[in-house]
Amino acid sequence: MHSASPLPSTGEAFLDARGDGRALRVTWHAESGLVVLSLWRDGSCAGTFRLPVEEVPDLVEVLRGGFRQAYGHARSALLDHDSA
Fold first, then answer.
1. pTM value?
2. Domain locations in the chain?
3. Comparing C-alpha atoms, which of 22, 56, 53 is closest to residue 38?
């Protein structure tokens, strides 16, 4: 696999809660019309996924839907706990 390279200014890194140097990097490549999602562990790239920019809205909508559902469950559980 590739060794770690600096994160481009058009991206972000998200650390995995499990630790062990795990991270997800999201980088925009406008020149190629892609968003690259890459999985990292201990400074080495373990895999990549190239998403065409026209599919990004679909990915965002899936994440929003999951977030709304997860938030709704967490909120309901909290309200149930408070009323008990």
1. 0.71
2. 11-83
3. 22
